[in-house]
């Protein structure tokens, strides 16, 4: 059974900045996906020097047990096992001199590796 939280405001399991949502929607559309149904899957997987790492991919539709939120027109899918590690996080898009890309600001992190790609809670 899925859980849906509309608008992604305070109290949402995960929030997304307007810039991150815009970048993700542009990528979804360039892949030919319907943004009314498809969305960005944010998940946690084993790996990295600190033990866990973030993953993102586009899915055509949510799974039955996903938590689904919508932020600035972007649907975000999070599975139950990942949610316990990333609840309260914010997804942002950074565009700097050395790199551009999505970044997760996670309040649950106790330690992370130097590159910022993996973490421990």
- Please report the distance between the alpha carbons of the first and last residues: 27 Å
Q: Report the helical percentage.
A: 10-25%
Describe the biggest sheet? 7 strands, mixed
Tally of structural domains: 1
Please state the structural category: alpha/beta
Write up this protein:
17% of the residues lie in helices and 41% in strands. With 121 residues, it is α/β, with parallel strands linked by helices. It has one domain (3-120): HesB-like domain (Hypothetical Protein Aq_1857, Chain: A, Sandwich), CATH 2.60.300. The radius of gyration is 14 Å and the shape is globular. The model has no long low-confidence stretch (mean pLDDT 84).
Secondary-structure blueprint:
Layout: E1 3-5, E2 14-16, H1 18-30, E3 39-46, E4 52-59, E5 67-71, E6 74-78, H2 80-86, E7 89-95, E8 100-105, E9 111-112, E10 118-120
Parallel strand pairs: 1-5, 2-7, 3-6
Antiparallel strand pairs: 3-4, 4-10, 5-6, 7-8, 9-10
Concise overview:
GO terms for molecular function: 2 iron, 2 sulfur cluster binding; 4 iron, 4 sulfur cluster binding; iron ion binding. The chain is 17% helix and 41% strand. It is α/β, with parallel strands linked by helices and 121 residues long.
What structural keywords apply?
121 residues, 2 helices, 17% helix, ATAP, ATAP_core_dom, alpha/beta, Hypothetical Protein Aq_1857, Chain: A, single chain, 10 strands
